[in-house]
Specification:
Layout lengths: L10 E2 L2 E2 L8 E2 L2 E2 L7 H17 L11 H12 L5 E5 L5 H5 L4 E6 L2 H10 L3 E4 L12 E7 L8 H11 E12 L4 H13 L5 H12 L13 H10 L2 E7 L14 E8 L3
Parallel strand pairs: 5-6, 5-8, 6-7, 8-9
Antiparallel strand pairs: 1-2, 3-4, 9-11, 10-11
């Protein structure tokens, strides 16, 4: 299934028969972060490896509840999903719950993927969305949750996701739009303190803020309109928006969370 992300050449033992690139395998997980931007890619990998080296269930306090995972999985199940890729799958909690006969996950962190590999039979690889190690038209479904904001090159990443999808395939992407400082404080109060006090979750969140706080290397600012423009320029038609306003029962972390259901246009 994997191909060379540089030239789309066939791989034999992770060596490209076309351009000669050789990709390492770490504990059975291939790594595709080599190339012209190797230093920048290594920096991204190092940052996320450090995060996952010191934290587990890293994104649990950012809306990844069991209720949300069930909701998102049901959404994916309502669309064609036989072959599925999760971009930025992290520790694989969502990937394990998603439907699909042939599931793949990519992430920049080998530490995260080692945990993901224990959660499901999905195939995992160290890679970035800007250079996906898959042939064209390989998937019925691509998903990403809280990842689009962290693409180094959103246009290139979106075009790559479109490339590996079959015509008519779907990209389901959750993003976090911008919040003011006051809105962020109010969000945490609702999440941990009022109307329901959640002391264990609150303590876990405080610990993350004080001990090796998580700082992701990239953060793009989006509105609903700018994110939709990015998807459309990349070859997608947005067929559905899911927010707290459009779907009040959706278990989203706040009004800033938006799920885009987009379909690859033919040609």
């Amino acid at each position: 299934m994997y191909v060379c992300p540089r030239c789309q050449g066939t791989l034999l033992a992770f060596a490209c028969s076309k351009c000669g690139a050789q990709y390492p395998s770490i504990n059975g997980i291939p790594s595709f972060l080599q190339g012209p931007s190797a230093d920048e890619r290594q920096f991204v990998r190092d940052v996320y490896d450090d995060i996952y080296s010191h934290h587990e269930n890293v994104w649990a306090d950012q809306g990844r509840s069991e209720e949300f995972i069930g909701f998102f999985s049901d959404l994916v199940a309502s669309l064609p999903h036989g072959s599925l890729l999760e971009v930025g799958c992290g520790e694989g909690t969502l990937l394990a719950a998603l439907p699909g006969e042939h599931k793949f996950g990519i992430d920049p962190s080998i530490h995260a993927l080692e945990r993901a590999a224990k959660r499901s039979a999905a195939s995992c690889a160290v890679a970035l969305a800007e250079d996906l190690p898959f042939p064209a038209n390989a998937f019925d479904m691509v998903v990403s949750v809280g990842v689009m904001e962290h693409f180094a090159n959103p246009a290139a990443a979106t075009a790559e996701i479109c490339r590996v999808l079959r015509d008519g395939g779907h990209y389901v992407a959750l993003i976090h739009t911008d919040l003011s400082r006051t809105q962020r404080i109010a969000l945490k109060i609702r999440e941990f303190l009022f109307p329901k006090f959640r002391p264990l979750a609150f303590g876990s969140w405080i610990k993350k803020k004080l001990w090796r706080p998580i700082r992701q290397p990239l953060r793009k600012s989006y509105t609903i309109e700018s994110a939709q423009d990015c998807l459309q320029c990349g070859g997608f038609l947005v067929t559905r928006l899911i927010t707290r306003q459009t779907d009040p029962a959706a278990p989203l972390a706040g009004s800033h969370v938006v799920i885009f259901v987009a379909q690859k246009t033919s040609g």
